[in-house]
Every structure is written in structure tokens, then in C-alpha cells.
Amino acid sequence: MSYTRESAEVLGLQVLGWLASNEELLPVFQGSSGAGEDDIRQGARDPAFLGAVLDFVMMDDAWVVQCCDSLNVKYGSLMLARQALPGGEQVNWT
Q: Residue 81, class by beta-carbon neighbours within 10 Å (0-12 exposed, 13-18 middle, 19+ buried)?
């Protein structure tokens, strides 16, 4: 499945909601990104911020599995959605 920018933003919002409800992982995200509660609320409307949320979750396979299982999406969905958001384009060096 490929994602349009709109469908990628929807998944990004779902992932952000999952992250916000995760009492152990949310502080890790906030510490690594410097994002406070207001930044997260505002970031929910920013496709680049949603891409950063996906980047963060994809840093750990266990987080991907937990998130995808919770959202009932395939494990590769986060990567595919990330490609449709700003900064997620794949670079080919050939």
C-alpha cells in the first residue's frame, strides 16, 4: 500500500495519539525532541512534525511493533507513511 500525503498525515496523527498515551515513551520523545505539551498540540497540524514522530517511533523495532499492534496496521506502514511526508523522500545515490 502506498500513502498519499493526506493518508500519511492521518496515520501520523494516530501514531502521535498512541505516543501521547504511552506514559513511558512520551517523556523519552519529549526529552529527545525538546517538544513540550503545547509543541505537541501545535505539531499535530504540521506534516513535518508528524514525520518526526514517525522517525522517532521507527528508531526501535519494539516501539514499531507496539504501535502497529495497537493501531492494527502492518509493521511497514510507518515507513511507507513517512515517505509521503516532508523529508521522507528516499534518496538514491546511483
A: buried
Assigned C-alpha cell, 86: 516532508
Identity of the residue numbered 87: G
What is the amino acid identity at position 85? L
Place of cell 505539551: 37
Percent of the chain with pLDDT over 90: 89
| Confidence grade of residue 90 (pLDDT, cut at 50, 70, 90) | low
- Angle (nearest 5°) at CA 30 between 89 and 33: 40
Query: Which three cell numbers mark 57?
Result: 517511533
| Measured distance CA(21)–CA(69) in Å, rounded | 14
